[in-house]
Amino acid sequence: MLSIRGLVKRYGTRTILDGLCLDVAPGTVVAILGESGTGKSTLLNLIAGLENADAGSIALSGTDLGGLDDDARTRLRCRAIGFVFQAFHIIAHLSALENTQLPLVLQGMALPERRRRAAQMLEAVGLGDRTQAMPRELSGGELQRIAIARALVHRPALVLADEPTGNLDPDTARSVLALLLSGARAGHSAVVLVTHSERAAAAADRVLRLERAGLVSVPVPGAAA
Fold this sequence. Notes:
Layout: E1 2-11, E2 14-24, E3 29-33, H1 40-47, E4 55-60, E5 63-64, H2 70-80, E6 81-84, H3 96-100, H4 102-106, H5 111-124, H6 140-152, E7 158-162, H7 170-186, E8 190-194, H8 198-201, E9 206-211, E10 214-218
Helix pairs in contact: 5-6, 6-7
């Protein structure tokens, strides 16, 4: 699903990622741990085509992002990638239902079908009775559930999650993470999860730590020795 080779990213004279390699198979959840400033969020932005690499390659289902122009990257992102941002990125003047169906709008899906799909997704994340609620009326946990519903509604092949539980209390974080991973696995999506939380990483199939030397495999937290 995802294949990264020799990835390099620099900001001025500072090298953030230097020769990074990663493979993620369909239906696999990979958690990436690391200190702030090591490039975890940058890596997700590069995979999503939101930033350009300085060297190396990123391929999604065999399509090399480096060979696509901006419009083609946008089309690929709309079709194949779901992104859960740490800061939610919920649009304040749109209802829960309208926020959730945005990827389907970008795909050009007809209004009745996209409303139906979005309503089903909100039901799946426990917000079936909040479809018309505005963001200002919702809690942080509810907003993150909308972000998850929006990331999964178009059934992406790859889900990228940047600290999806970072702003939530422990109980809400546990619930939100379970919803994200169960929804992704139900659709056989690959997941790359960036987190500071070893509790969140314990839900992954594979855990990597991003260090200056690159990605290093570490034991899944809580796994039997």
